[in-house]
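Help!! Second protein's tokens look totally different from the first
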Amino acid sequence: MKKRTQSASEEKILKGIGVSPGIVIGKVALLERERTTFIPRKIIAGQVSSEIRRFEEAIETSKKQLEEIKQRVFAKGFRQYSYILDVHLRVMEDRMLHGETITMIREKLVNTEWALKATLDKISEAFDAIEDEYLKERKEDIRHVVERIQNNLMGEGLGTIEDLEEETIVVAHDLSPADTIQLNLQKVIGIATDVGGKTSHTAIVSRSLEIPAVVGLAEVTSYVTGGETIIIDGGEGIVIVAPSPATKKTYQLKQRHYRYLERELLKYSTLRAETQDGHYLTLQANIEILEEIPSVIQYGAEGIGLYRTEYLYLNRKTIPDEEEHFQLYKRLVEEIAPYSATIRTIDLGGDKFASHIELAEQMNPAMGLRAIRFCLMEQDIFKAQLRGILRASAYGQVKILLPMISGVEELREVKAIWDDAKDELASRGVEFKDDIPLGVMIEIPSAAITADILAREVDFFSIGTNDLIQYSLAIDRTNQYVSYLYEPLHPAIVRHIKGVVDCAHKAGIEVGICGEMAADPLYTLIFLGLGLDELSMHPMAIPRIKKVLRRSTRTDGEHLLKEVLQFSTARETEYFIRKEMAERFPEDFIQCME
């Protein structure tokens, strides 16, 4: 993209996706990496072997580079992030990436660069059909791997950001996982990229390292050349290039205020999530990788309320077996002890497997063969996971959570498979706990409406508000034309949640929320009034939620809920809630009233 001309005094405000909170002001270090270009060319049959050899040698060189980076990461004391490079090493072994490229060279008689690019396009097309945001962004892992292989094919090196000499804000079109974990933490104070999302590796690592970051800015690199002053507001998802003196002063004040609040909030991390009138609410954490557990502990979570297991199935040649599941979950429960870990079973669909499972293409995968529906069709895959969970239960506290249950018939089918898995282990003399709590996610309207029936069959509910909102309001929140209709405070959603909580408590089981709403303190008093037993969220959100709880009463929540249930629209409800919270917590919610 051609750089835009901009006068030194011209302030530019860009809006992106805030993935790691915090406010920083600093000079730009621009990481420019030209897109790899090559000349597509035809080859003759006699050149096929040499082209395949070039491809395999480039892969081996790429592997060696990643292993060297891993060693440097270990030397810096960041061993916990090496899993990111392990993902890329597995991608290089991927059957589709490797096999399709070689097949293309042999059958189409094209050079390796051309064949590799065609393979990447094919894989990218498959990933573009995925609805799940986290899984969709794994396409970037494959793109980064291909970029590295292409550069090695052409004898070109990749730039580095290890040797920064002063505190800077790194600006780039994108950061590969190798880039991100090589950041010099003493020098990099912020990150801004053109692309990326909330679940990209840049987002995950920047949150873990507490580096303020904004991604998905589209064109931030076109407004800087390096050395300019910029401001990053990771909470609001804003980047300001060449801020005016007045803007800079405003954000310096916001920065001091933010740092003060962070210090104050951390004081709540070790305190009980208890209201002033003695009501206790369990706060747990949502995680995707075991390396997040230190943050879970640091921010005061009492266990894992949602452990997503999809990552285990991606970018690999084989399906994980029972032993691999067992080893992973065993480590999970041991590291989070004495608290429990709630493991959600596979929430994948056939279209989400890039290489090792062949299923028919689906017109609407979000409502097709995915999650528990996929598990009921592929019972051997499902049972391997269930046996792994059962075996891990002998080493700590485990709960099992079933996604996308639409009714009691599906649930009963799962319970029969669950019993079969127990019988298989018992026949082998394998130790496990027989009383593992079994729960279902309430994320489909049919499940919410029949919650009274489901509650008689399970030990707990976990409400997945992200999908419940989308399915209930018939909107795709990633669709720019209808995303404005994604309204967590829509009367239908509040009533759905209330109905599910009432049914759960009538049946004597606990109910929590694990969707994004749980992490927003704006909704905490409503959840308190609704009588929820548990909230599960990103670890960093926990101290803020504790603060709201410890400065409120259960009666406050009940009174607030009574008012909320009188409103007819989401807009009325949100205005009321923001006004109430700004009055109760002016230091935290005053911006909501601007």
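Here's the second one for comparison:
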Amino acid sequence: MTKYRSVLFYVIVIGGFLALMYWIVQVGKPLEITKVHTVANEAGSGSITDMLKDAFGHNVTHPFAILLLQIITIIITARTFGFLFNKIGQPTVIGEVVAGIFLGPSILGMWFPEYSSFLFPKASLSNLQFLSQVGLLLFMFVIGMELDLKVLKTKAKDAIVISHASIIVPYALGMAASYFLYLEFAPDNINFLSFSLFMGIAMSITAFPVLARIIQERGMTKTKVGTISITCAAADDITAWCILAAVIAIVKAGSFYSSLFTIAMAAVYVLVMLKIIKPFLVKLGQVYSNKETLSLNVVAVIFGVFLISSYTSEVIGIHALFGAFLAGVIMPPKFSFRRIIIEKVEYVALVLLLPLFFAFSGLRTQIGLLNDSHSWIICCIIIVIAVIGKFGGSMLAARFVGQTWKDSIAIGALMNTRGLMELIVLNIGYDLGVLTPTVFAMMVIMALVTTFMTGPALDLLNRYSKNEESEKTKILKQRFRILISFANPQSGKKMVRIASLLSGNSNARITALHITPSADINKFNAAEYERESFKPVKSEALRLGLDIETVYKASNDVSEEILSSANNGEYNLMLVGAGQSLFQGSFLGRLIGLTANALNPEKLINTFAGKDTLIESETIIDERVKAFIFQSSIPVGVFVDREFTELHKIMIPVFTISDIFLLFYAKKILKNSDAKVVIVDYSGIIGSNSEFKEEITNIEIYSPNSIALITRKDIKPEAFPSSSMMILSFDGWKALEREGALIDNEKLSILLIRP
């Protein structure tokens, strides 16, 4: 009876109170007579279809519903275009800017005007603009925190020369261009000073965050070019935003002399932030530097400083974005403190709010205004001036301070990246009425072209720069080389152990590769991410006495980067973890997997070729690893960890003659361990194959009493504990997966090898 007490209590309480609520409604109904007689009659009129149409029609066009639909559409479109542009080697921001233009009047508004007017009615744009501005404020706050001022101090000399040359040269050229553009393209009631100053700043900006991502994705973080470029971009950002604040003050004041008061107020504001607020925040960071001590009150103080700083700069007249940027710069320099704050802000800003800014910019970009050859010629001239000023100025300055021509060209190409920062400047100019819609469209195109050309320019430079191989490099290529690619540091530690077993001898060379999605990393915490990612791997390699090389990269496409590293690195084996299939374990997952596979050309080709199936089975291997198996040009080892510790026994199921290559790896493992090898003649082919028998005999001679041959019926799963590992081919894995018996053994780790 005791076990039913809870059920009985639940039924009595819920049932009793539901009955009470029903009785209250019935008693209260007579009260409606004098209150809702007319409304009730109207509510009862019309068909169900009309009532549904009226109700949903009102709900769908409600301003809040429109805003949510806009956000959903913008995020999906931005992520889609970002993914597509990543595939062609371009930064995500390029795809997101193009996504904004796609949603604007240039494409969606032109081809689907009715849908465009429904999705982006003019009355809703103010809401979108305010949300996008909040996203920009958070983004600039993060950018300020990502600036490492210590680097600027240690490398200030060359960086400031290159940075300031990369600003002054395009600034002067931009002002010169404004002299020829003013009469035709400047808005009415805007003086020449305001127009020329904004054209200059628009030509001279560098996108620090985009440049940092490009450097990370190309593995240039520790190179001389990468370090100098990052430092120059940081100095460029600080200088350009100070200049922009002065320019905004001049434009709002109407003349240079009347803007002096605004600039003086801004100087006082900056001094207060640096001399009073910053020391307080430094003390705060020393006390609250980890997640355990960082309370909600401390976070509230941080965001309070951010918001008050933004508000103050807006009231002074130098734009709220400058205040957000400065608030980020003066945050406590302690790494752990800044990392926590960045992690709390960055994803919301980058994924949710920043795409709204791209969409809003796209709604303003009317490429259709460039409707004649004259307009397009002017646009091309603007692009050429921008490239000559920024690329040429940076390149010549870098060469002057002692860089090689190759490095100088690379620095020039990187500093020519404009991206998001350019859009911010252009939108400020548009809001202030300094730029007409036509000039705004031209400058957006210039921002896209100059950012787009960075990657191809670096590729072209690398293609024509030939580096001679050293003797050491030639010796390394003669070794048995293993590439380990891992996501989780602890799984990387175990794969080092497996690589040690497969290395065969001390002449082998092991490379550990860890790639972080570039959206998950920023310049500020990249070094800490790298250190933490490789700590367990290096510790295990030291314990085993291994010669190990570590490679860390950030990439827009992690799988493609891993494949590229494997295929171009002259390795003998790539070792990866199995992961887990995204489409495993639920009906919805399998349905999504089937749809994704049907739209995947490579999957269709492999299905028709009999190498794979469209319908996913309950597989232990995820889709990313399958791509490695099919697309890698070198042997691939997939490790399925089942609480693997030390190796005492190896089981090798043999299904076809081609599985003989597995004995090559068994022999290497026997060199490095005391393990016993059990070969399972699964299909009964070994007895009739002389080559197989000869290879087994060679192993017995090399390592006596270390190998045994059994048949399928002799397998006893309990004989393979957690200290065992099964090594099998890809075809063998597919055969065993259909049976499930050995694959499902929770104690038996698996090494799947595709030759």
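Reply: Different proteins will give different token patterns, so don't panic. Residues 39-44, 468-477, 582-592, 614-618 have pLDDT under 50 and may be disordered.
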